[in-house]
Amino acid sequence: xxxxxxxxxxxxxxxxxxxxxxxxxxxxxxxxxxxxxxxxxxxxxxxxxxxxxxxxxxxxxxxxxxxxxxxxxxxxxxxxxxxxxxxxxxxxxxxxxxxxxxxxxxxxxxxxxxxxxxxxxxxxxxxxxxxxxxxxxxxxxxxxxxxxxxxxxxxxxxxxxxxxxxxxxxxxxxxxxxxxxxxxxxxxxxxxxxxxxxxxxxxxxxxxx
Length: 209
What we know:
This protein is α/β, with parallel strands linked by helices. It has a single domain (2-207), classed as Rossmann fold (3-Layer(aba) Sandwich), CATH 3.40.50. The protein has helices at residues 11-21, 37-42, 57-60, 78-98, 121-135, 172-182, 202-207, and strands spanning 2-6, 26-31, 47-49, 65-68, 103-107, 140-146, 148-150, 157-161, 169-171, 191-197, 200-201.
């Protein structure tokens, strides 16, 4: 499959691209800044310049799947959270439908909820709205909800649950490996699940959903 990675220049997105290029699928890195292109040129990964605050049809066109790994980031204001994590994510879902990119994998967050009262409620609400919109679409969707992200080395062993609330950590390595593994695991289609560090190999964990 030709897979568009939205948020490819982020810490998780770069890991997703690396895994895709090593496997049977063909990644396309969506970037917002032309200065980011040389990184992917060195990897022989094609790029497309697009911004979630504007139409992205040209980026999705011709792709079979989308992995949404974008985020406004902790250093931006609440307005950017709404523009990227909420409206931008929904824009990407609509575009995937229009452009027939049937497989869609959303990187969400543990405790994403439109009624959140958490310390970062604006973020959890934004993710919750985007997740709900995706769940109501006719795409072959998957919503992955990791805990607090770490840069610990990946173990390829995780714990998954259909309960997407709670606490815990998830390494970016294990998260990226799970996002990529979902592409070819039918048990993850139309499923939402939490992803935390655990003892179960990723393929086995996904088959249990």
